[in-house]
Automatic annotation (TrEMBL):
<dbReference type="InterPro" id="IPR041726">
    <property type="entry name" value="ACAD10_11_N"/>
</dbReference>
<dbReference type="InterPro" id="IPR002575">
    <property type="entry name" value="Aminoglycoside_PTrfase"/>
</dbReference>
<dbReference type="Pfam" id="PF01636">
    <property type="entry name" value="APH"/>
</dbReference>
<dbReference type="InterPro" id="IPR052898">
    <property type="entry name" value="ACAD10-like"/>
</dbReference>
<dbReference type="InterPro" id="IPR011009">
    <property type="entry name" value="Kinase-like_dom_sf"/>
</dbReference>
<feature type="domain" description="Aminoglycoside phosphotransferase">
    <location>
        <begin position="30"/>
        <end position="252"/>
    </location>
</feature>
<protein>
    <submittedName>
        <fullName>Aminoglycoside phosphotransferase</fullName>
    </submittedName>
</protein>
<dbReference type="GO" id="GO:0016740">
    <property type="term" value="F:transferase activity"/>
</dbReference>
<keyword id="KW-0808">Transferase</keyword>
Length: 344
């Protein structure tokens, strides 16, 4: 049984797959992906094909975090929709097999862009990739959750109110030092909470270009990955999450577009991306977008604080990167305050 995030018990995996995965003949080769901060992720190579294993990290975890069972369920439910996902194969909730719950899905071969600049591509390709990212986001929010069996995938009520409460608790549970900007942001979001407008649908929760696989031959999304934070909620949370990411500094740490000439790069402005999304979904202009953007900064700050806490506790998938990400918490908090005070 494997008890850390860096390795897998190959014999245990071989025993589990035998008789469960069609075509599997006992040969297994395992390689850990560098990505997958929250749930350690591994490439499983077999003669029957290549697969991906996503597992919960071992150890004491925050309540409701690392829900690989939910990841498995939502991707399985989306199999026949316009939202591209990997094919799901097996879910194992027996901790005794490798030390924590895990699932196995197809490995989707293609291009994965680590940031929206897409440095090795030309302007036309960049624009087309982002437009397909927009198309998939609109398709996700148009999914009929009742028809795909996900009507109970999230509780009713004001999504942003619920999420603010959840991430405030998560943040405080993983707090390692006092960050005045975060304290102020949590208070301000509570005070400026908009009334529930009734929009309710499936949201991804971490919709970014680096969580997508694109075709190697064309600007078409083949799979959306990393569904750990998905739930039934308000679609503007995902949309604001995209814009939030773009407002971060460019490069491998920020992975944003701040300060870059998007027109020269072939990339849309924030407003153009939002307009395209609204057009695809037949929506009017979005009021009070600054609140949704601020909330996205707050929630990401909470997520990064959790990543830092796991690194300090010895449970992080990539400890060095986790500590670097933790440095962004006060930056995200201040950005959230800036967005909340904007008139956008």
């Amino acid at each position: 049984m494997s008890s850390d995030t860096q390795t897998l018990d190959i014999d245990a995996i071989r025993t589990f797959l035998d008789g469960r995965l069609p075509g599997f003949d006992g040969a297994v080769e395992v390689q850990k992906f560098a990505t997958g901060q929250s749930n350690p992720t591994f490439l499983i190579k077999t003669p029957a094909g290549q697969y991906v294993l996503r597992r919960k990290p071992p150890g004491v975890l925050l309540k409701s975090a690392h829900a690989v069972d939910r990841e498995f369920r939502v991707q399985k439910a989306l199999a026949d929709t316009e939202v591209p996902v990997a094919r799901m194969h097996l879910l194992c909730e027996d901790d005794s097999v490798i030390g924590s719950a895990f699932y196995i899905m197809d490995h989707v071969a293609g291009r994965n862009f680590t940031d929206p600049v897409m440095g090795d591509t030309d302007p036309a390709t960049r624009g087309a990739v982002i437009d397909d990212m927009n198309r998939v986001l609109a398709a996700l929010h148009d999914v009929d959750v009742d028809a795909v069996g996900l009507s109970d995938y999230g509780p009713p009520g004001n999504y942003f109110e619920r999420q603010l409460g959840r991430w405030t608790k998560q943040y405080k549970a993983s707090e390692t030092r006092t960050i005045p900007e975060m304290d102020e942001l949590m208070k301000s979001l509570e005070e400026q909470m908009p009334a529930d407008d009734g929009q309710r649908g499936l949201v991804h929760g971490d919709y970014r270009i680096d969580n997508m696989i694109f075709s190697a031959d064309e600007p078409r999304c083949l799979a959306v990955l990393d569904w750990e934070l998905s739930t039934i909620g308000h679609p503007y949370a995902d949309l604001a999450g995209v814009i939030m990411q773009w407002q971060m500094p460019p490069g491998q740490e920020g992975r944003g577009l701040a300060g870059l000439d998007r027109k020269v790069l072939g990339l849309p402005s924030d407003e153009e991306f939002i307009e395209a999304y609204c057009r695809r979904r037949g929506l009017p202009e979005i009021d009070n977008f600054g609140f949704y953007l601020s909330f996205s900064f707050f929630r990401m700050a909470g997520i990064l604080q959790g990543v830092l806490k796991r690194a300090l506790d010895g449970n992080a998938s990539n400890p060095e990167r986790a500590r670097k990400l933790g440095d962004f918490v006060p930056i995200f908090a201040q950005s959230g305050l800036n967005a909340l005070s904007s008139t956008k």
